[in-house]
Design a protein that fits this description.
244 residues; two-stranded antiparallel sheet; ten-stranded mixed β-sheet; 8 helices; D-Maltodextrin-Binding Protein, domain 2
């Protein structure tokens, strides 16, 4: 979409990825009615670049296009801010008139947000590292071997692991960990398993030139519907405008 190529962003980057200030775009900050929060979820949402190093100040991706079209079709102005996922989620919970995407809809989140627009369906799988991981591995096997499955804190992946019956001591919740971060922990044998969206995983492994052949897809953890959502503290007038 041509409009996105014109969006201007200010970048603040830390060694761990995007810092709390993140990436922000807006056409007119004084006119913004909502803060629109997102995270780096390639290929759906990403800063324009080569996947390894930020080389531009623009945010792009098919979900960005869909959300921007939706808001502009309802004459809702916004500040678009990219943060690490945990930070984006926390800010969305705490900020009135905040929107966040892509957010998977779950029972535990149901009453914390207004679910504005369905975006897509996401699948998640538990992966291990060859040759130690074996096809046919079950949740019981992971528990019996005292294995740990890594996930990013405040993510749907952690929630899916709980729903599957994995005990808390077998879940490694990592603050701000990217998919390449979790991949590297696996191949260095820091933990035994992780949970990924295979589409996002494949994209990032190629971009970072990481060897995907080392991973084995073991168990389907589930699937979720992903949405543009609004903070439960969003004004009734804004919810009405968003639902037109």
């Amino acid at each position: 979409m041509a409009l996105l190529c014109a969006l201007q962003c200010s970048l603040t980057v830390s060694a761990a990825g995007f810092a709390e200030q993140g990436v922000e775009t807006t056409a007119d900050k004084t006119a913004a009615q909502v803060v629109l929060l997102t995270a780096h979820v390639p290929p759906y949402v990403a800063p324009l670049g080569n996947g390894v190093e930020l080389v531009s100040d623009k945010i792009e991706g098919p979900l960005v296009d869909a959300v921007v079209d939706y808001l502009e079709g309802r004459s809702v102005s916004y500040d678009l801010v990219m943060l690490p996922w945990s930070a984006a989620y926390r800010r969305a919970l705490a900020t009135p008139n905040a929107l966040v995407f892509p957010l998977d809809r779950t029972l535990s989140r149901e009453d914390d947000f207004h679910w504005i627009k369905h975006l897509q369906t996401n699948e998640y799988f538990i992966y291990g590292v060859s040759p130690s991981a074996q096809f046919g591995t079950t949740i019981s096997d992971i528990v019996d071997e005292n294995g740990q499955v890594s996930c990013t804190l405040n993510s749907i992946q952690c929630e899916l692991l709980v729903e599957m019956g994995l005990p808390e001591e077998n879940i490694l919740r990592l603050e701000g960990a990217s998919i390449p971060d979790r991949y590297r922990l696996l191949v260095r044998n820091r933990n035994q398993y992780s949970i990924f969206d295979p589409i996002v995983l494949s994209f990032l492994l190629k971009k970072h030139r990481l060897d995907g052949e080392k991973l084995i897809k073991l168990i389907k953890a589930g699937e979720r519907e992903s949405y543009l959502a609004a903070s439960i503290n969003t004004s009734p007038e804004m919810i009405e405008a968003l639902n037109k």
